[in-house]
Design a protein that fits this description.
globular, 7-stranded mixed sheet, 7 strands, about 45% helix
Length: about 280
């Protein structure tokens, strides 16, 4: 399989951003995605079983995150963004962000170096810094959050496409330590249900597992998992309904939505929350 390590998943997603950017009705424009994905990214999508199937949810996720990030920056006083496991994200270059905004991209040193070399010569629109760090290392993570808490007033933390690759035992201390940053007011992430995790592992699990990036995190309590760490759900956007709103649905999504109309209320809510995008707010 072309996915050789966890960092290659970032190239995989960059291909989808490049595909969307090339459309006449594109939801967003990422002029750097094709360059960042490179031949390896295209190889992954080409050779992965049903590789094209995942393009719609990834594109929807990118568009929804764009909307929520800009809303927090423009309407909620966010002065600092901390993008954990940032991969090949280019929002600090392509979004209409204020020049005064502080933006930190954090990822493994090899990914940070690759991205820095690829983006050399292109200027971010805000005050940008890339940090190489292994977020699974407890001491490195603690030191990182102490550093990032300095000089900020209202911080938005982003974990786009990260939590699904972690275990519950890894997400728990991450949630706790993000909360130690008193300025961390908001936390934006995506989340999958246990039912969706089964489907994802059936279709793509063996491919990502070979690259040491297995799909793992899907708490039975959904966003309630984060309550014990000082976070509560402020906004939930359902992946299936956001796909319909943005006209980027997966092939079977209309059938799923039709089935939901006839299901009991509890079942409808479960299906609505199979995948989603969550904005968490700190409790204190």
């Amino acid at each position: 399989m072309p996915i050789e390590n966890v960092s290659y998943t970032a190239r995989w997603v960059a291909v989808y951003r490049a595909m969307e950017s090339a459309r006449k009705d594109a939801l967003f424009h990422d002029p750097f995605a094709e360059r960042l994905a490179g031949p390896k990214g295209r190889e992954i999508v080409r050779e992965m079983k049903r590789g094209q199937m995942l393009s719609s949810p990834m594109i929807v996720r990118t568009a929804v995150f764009d909307e929520l990030i800009l809303d927090r920056v423009n309407n909620a006083g966010v002065d600092t963004v901390v993008n954990l496991a940032a991969g090949l994200d280019t929002r600090a270059w392509r979004l209409p962000l204020p020049a005064s905004l502080r933006w930190f991209d954090v990822d493994l040193p090899a990914m940070t170096e690759y991205k820095a070399n690829a983006m050399r010569g292109d200027r971010p629109v805000c005050r940008y810094e890339a940090i190489g760090a292994d977020l699974t290392n407890d001491s490195v993570r603690s030191d990182l959050f102490r550093r990032l808490a300095v000089g900020c007033t209202t911080t938005l933390v982003i974990t786009e496409g990260l939590l699904i690759y972690l275990t519950t035992e890894q997400v728990a201390p991450l949630a706790r330590e993000i909360h130690t940053m008193k300025c961390a007011r908001w936390w934006l992430s995506d989340i999958a249900s246990a039912r969706l995790l089964v489907i994802m592992n059936k279709h793509w699990g063996s491919a990502v597992a070979r690259g040491a990036a297995p799909f793992q995190f899907a708490p039975l309590e959904g966003t309630g998992f984060f309550n014990q760490f000082g976070w509560h759900e402020a906004i939930f956007r359902s992946g299936i309904y956001e796909g319909k709103r943005l006209h980027r649905e997966m092939r079977m999504a209309p059938i799923w939505r039709a089935m939901m109309r006839f299901a009991p209320a509890a079942r409808r809510d479960e299906m609505r929350r199979m995948s989603g995008f969550i904005l968490l707010e700190r409790d204190d």
